[in-house]
Amino acid sequence: MLKNIIKGLEPSSTLKINEVSKNLENNGKKVFKFGFGQSPFQVPNDIVDALKDNAHQNKYLPMQGLEELRDTIAKYTSAKKDNNYKSENVIIGPGSKELMFLLHILFDGDIILPVPSWVSYAPQAILGRNKIIPVQTTRENNWFPTGAEIEKVISKSKDKNYLLFLNSPNNPSGQICENLEEISKIINKYNLIILSDEIYSELSFEKGFKSIADFCPKNTIISSGLSKWCGAGGWRLGYFIVPDSLKILKDSINVLASETFSAVSAPIQHAAIKAYSSDQNEYINSSKNILKAVGNYVYDNLKSNKILINKPMGGFYLMPEFLNKKFNSSSEMCNNILKETGVALLPGSDFGFDKKKMFARLSFTDFDGKNFMRQIKSNQKIDNNLILEFAPKIVEGVNKLKKWSESL
Question: Is the pLDDT of residue 28 over 90?
Fold first, then answer.
């Protein structure tokens, strides 16, 4: 009944852990939801109002997306990048995840995936029947590949088509790629295609976010959307920005879009114009201020001779490595952590690591973002007392996790 290509796939682990956590809570267990990555903040009020005002929009929109929205996103992105994008470069999708899936379906070649990588890249590549070439990375390089490591992959077969996925700030590590210029030299040398997943870029903790598109714009598809910076994951609106040089890919995505999702919800597309045309700096700065403080709190309180961890640089993830030999797999370890402490984490094996390496992804978003944001100013210094007051489950969950690690 089922195709062989489907039989080995499991439900997305990020969505699965959310359901597992909810079921445990419904059964009366206190759960610290550090597994599911979702913005803790509410959608800005003016964007919510724009959705309400456009609830009457009931017509199918163009398959590539509403012209005015595409134009707004092109201008928004051009102002941040050293490039001049136009509306025809933009494709609107029901979340960037669906657009990535269509890209996997149409691309004919090998997929270069840094390890670790977001949980859905590899399964989508499998469904697209493309070969996955994992590139192991190191903590010292912020969990991103070096130019030499990428070139080593390509040099084995230079006549193939390659698509490199680069996600910065990164899910699951919370790190930012700092060797973009080095990587871009290899990209330009071999004319590779890059999918630059920048869904967390607005949540970079330091100013001056750099994209690989700044160094090789003709080779880079930029992927982003509303879900992370706008707190609108459930709205399901993402987009690709595809350069003119990759028009054949853009046109093919449009064909697949016309045969799959047809067009993104009309009211949400109209509301998204507000998101990308209005000044949301105060909201974004407040979000970053809170996330940076909470992330640093988790980092400062977990790092030890039992837990190796990099300081967070953006988004809302950390990737601790637990130094123990008690468990046979990171999945077994995370199950034990959940059972013993109530802290839900995702195992590193879900992100491409060898199952015997004791990595886990920790999302530090289990707090009431609306209340936290309402109580502080966008640039206010946030100390541990404020974190204890407005993110108590973060504090309690971290304490439980730390005590668990010390008992090993």
Answer: no
Task: Say how many Å lie between the first and final Cα of the chain, rounded.
Answer: 46
Token pair listed for 19: 């359901």
Cα dihedral 318, 324, 325, 327, rounded to 10, equals -50
Neighbours of 203 (CB within 10 A): 21
Q: What is the mean predicted confidence (pLDDT) over 203-210?
A: 93
Cα(168)–Cα(176) distance, rounded to whole angstroms?
A: 5
Query: In this structure, which CATH number among 3.80.10.10, 3.40.640.10, 3.20.20.150, 3.40.50.2300 belongs to the domain 56-277?
Result: 3.40.640.10
What are residue 399's DSSP bridge partners? none
Strand pairing category for 360-363 and 317-318: antiparallel
- Residue 4, pLDDT score: 81
Q: What is the DSSP letter of 64?
A: T
Assign domain 4-43+281-406 to a CATH class: alpha beta
* Residue whose token pair is 């077994």: 332
Specify the DSSP element, H or E, that contains 92. Answer: strand 90-93
Q: Where are the domains of the chain?
A: 4-43+281-406, 56-277
One-character DSSP codes across 162-210: EEEEEESS-TTT------HHHHHHHHHHHT-EEEEE-TTGGGBSSSS--
List, in sequence order, every residue forming a beta bridge with 359; answer none if it has no partner.
321
Rg (CA), the chain: 21
Q: Which residue has the tokens 């509410």?
A: 42
How would residue 13 be classed by pLDDT, with cut points 50, 70 and 90? low
Give CA–CA dist 156/67, Å, rounded: 43
What angle, rounded to 10 degrees, do the helices at 281-302 and 392-406 form? Answer: 20
Burial readout 219-257 (b: 16 or more C-beta within 10 A, e: otherwise): bbbbbbbbbbbbbbbebbbbbbbbbeebeebbebbbebb
Neighbouring-strand partners of residue 386: none
- pLDDT tens by residue, 304-355: 999 999 999 999 999 999 998 899 999 999 999 998 999 999 999 999 999 9
- For the ranges 34-38, 115-119, 164-168, the lowest mean pLDDT is seen at 34-38
